[in-house]
Amino acid sequence: MDTAEPLRWLLEQIGGGVTLIQAGCLPREVVAAAFARYSHWYPIGKGPRSETDLFQLADLHELGCTQRLVTKRHRTLKLSVAGGVQLADHQLRQHTAALAWLGTTVAERQVAECALGAPWAEPRLREDLCDAVHPVLAASLTHDDGTVMEVKDTERLLWRFWHLGRELGYLDERDRSADAPISLSATGRFAALAALRVLAEGPKGRATASERGSAGGQAGVGEAAHQ
User: Fold this and answer.
1) Where are the domains of the chain?
2) SS3 171
3) 125: pLDDT confidence band, cut at 50, 70 and 90?
4) Could you tell me the fold of the domain covering 5-88?
């Protein structure tokens, strides 16, 4: 099972090269193809005009750049050697997507570890998921001054987990309302197992605010912008 299908699709679209438009955005034909394939990414209905109108595509583009799956020369974006290898190897691509879903900081990974198990048996409301995750995080994460995490910190960290999980197709959440239940998709279950294996192999420790990174206000701003 391909557990990173949207990422695979984007790598296929980029292939041997596409010409970027202004501000380094993907060309309109790629945006149109993304909307045709993933129409739920843009709920307004008329269709996006550019990558900036389709934030899921923009974030996948950024993921490809961050993971060095693509390379840019002047206005041409094409697959890197690593991108070509991962396009042909679904296990490597799954590993890359799982790493991206987990995040890069200690706090993001601890949030993911808690959040991955909560909706495994049944869908969970956002509020219920936060209530299930927060006590664990409050016991394991602290601010630099030693104070425990607040609920708003948990919500900001969970936002990143929800956000990327939806883009990669790991979370079934077509209804974006605040009271919509969240559940793991079929590919999300495989990806969750891969992510948990990565976590099991990594170091454990008590994180501080300086390690958390995304526990600050930026994630909260993104949440408001995309809901």
Assistant:
1) 5-88, 104-226
2) strand
3) confident
4) Arc Repressor Mutant, subunit A (1.10.10)
Token pair belonging to 187: 């590919």
What is the CA angle 206-200-9, rounded to 5?
110
What's the whole-model pTM score? 0.71
Instruction: Give the number of C-alpha atoms closer than 13 A to the C-alpha of residue 134, restricted to the C-beta side.
Output: 15
DSSP string, 5-33: HHHHHHHHHHTT-EE--GGGPPPHHHHHH
**Structure tokens that stand for 62 in this block:** 């950024």
Q: For every residue of 39-77, which 3-state class applies, written as one string?
A: HHHCCCCCCCCCHHHCHHHHHHHHHHHHCCCEEEECCEE
* CATH C-level class of 104-226: mainly alpha
| 74 secondary structure, DSSP code | T
**Strand pairing report for 76-79 and 181-184:** unpaired
For 138-158, write each residue's pLDDT tens digit. Answer: 888 888 888 888 999 888 888
Cα dihedral sign, 51-52-57-59: positive
Q: Where are the beta strands (DSSP E) in 173-225?
A: 181-184
The residue count for the chain: 227
